[in-house]
Amino acid sequence: MRPAKRLFIVALALCGLGFLIQISHAATTRSPDEFLAEVRSQAAFRIAAIVTMLVCYRVGPSRLKPFLPHLVVVACAFLIGVFIEPFKTALNGANRWIELPGVGLRFQPSELARIVIVLWIADRCVRLGQKVFDLRRGVTPMLTLVSVFASLILFETDFGGAMIFLICALSTIWVGGVRLRPLGTWVFATCGGAIIAASLFVPYTRDRIGMFLGTVENDQMARSLDALSSGAVTGAGFTHGTFRNAGVPYLESDYVFALVGEELGLLGMWLVLALELCFLWFALRMVLSIRDRFDALASFGLLVSVALQAMVHVQVVSGLAPPKGMTLPFLSDGGTSLIVTSLAVGLALGAARNTHMELYECSP
User: Fold this and answer.
1) Under 8 Å CB-to-CB from 218, ≥6 apart: which residues?
2) What Rg value do the Cα atoms of the chain yield, rounded?
3) Could you tell me the CA-to-CA distances from 258 to 103, 160, 268, 336, 363 in Å, in that order?
4) Which residues does 104 contact at the CB level (< 8 Å), separation at least 6?
5) How far apart are CA 250 and CA 90, in angstroms?
6) CA torsion through residues 352, 353, 358, 362, sign
7) Calpha distance 7→24 (Å, rounded)
8) Blockwise average pLDDT, block size 10, the chain, 364 residues
9) Is residue 145 within 8 Å of 166, Cβ to Cβ?
10) Which of 76, 229, 342, 353 has the most CB atoms within 10 Å of its CB?
């Protein structure tokens, strides 16, 4: 439980730092009444995130195994629902969100689908045993379902989300025992073809790649880099950032790392990166300590999805990857994203708890 406890502490630290960053952003962009409402909203969501982690810690991945077929169907239905009235919610030309009528709840189904598919793959690899090496019975069914889910995410359009989904799913499949050769062949054939086709025929993707290569100018990227570098070593100071009031959008969500660099400077960015590295280190140590194969494999996929999302966010904001609307786990604004991230971390912690309870029961 030692790495699990430390992982939980790191998650709490990121959650607390994210609360301060969001309060700082709201302090100069909202009226006094709106500011107080935002403080209450952020506090409520982060309390809900901690409660979600604790509940999932008690549940663990194993208790969800009987419901996995139903969860796969529900996740697929949600991915299809983003294209169907009255559930779809188009924003910035993309159908990535689904809104439940009468409830006012809006969330991104691809994030939930990522958790469900990781759990399903882990269960499938364990059930197959040695048959996981078989191309027809083991590899093909898993890659088929992964392809269906990734295609639905790609058609939203969310090319970056589809790539992250694929990386998490394929990493879990590989760690689950599938040989690298058939998996690698499928990856190069499918993913390589999708990237080439999207860059040639999808204007949205072509423009994003052009922004990364410098052939297409984008004010959002340029201004966010200016904000990131303006803080020097110690930053402008808490609540003293100016770029958010100078027309730079999404500094509280998709580009929150730029806000950290502006207000907290290089030291603040080092702090965030150190916490993310600690998260990854304790996550891997915890996975290696879990005795049950399903729990270990599911925890690996769940925690890698969180770490990968953080890595992509930092790369996008710092100009090391093409632009992609990707939140920074625990720091960015967005209630449902925060809850889904807490769900993934909580389930992984629950797997460590199951191992701890088994060892306790077996001890004399």
Assistant:
1) 211, 323
2) 21
3) 33, 19, 11, 22, 50
4) none
5) 17
6) positive
7) 26
8) 92 95 90 90 93 93 92 92 79 74 76 93 88 76 88 81 87 83 65 63 63 66 85 88 82 90 94 96 94 93 93 89 83 87 95 79 59
9) no
10) 342
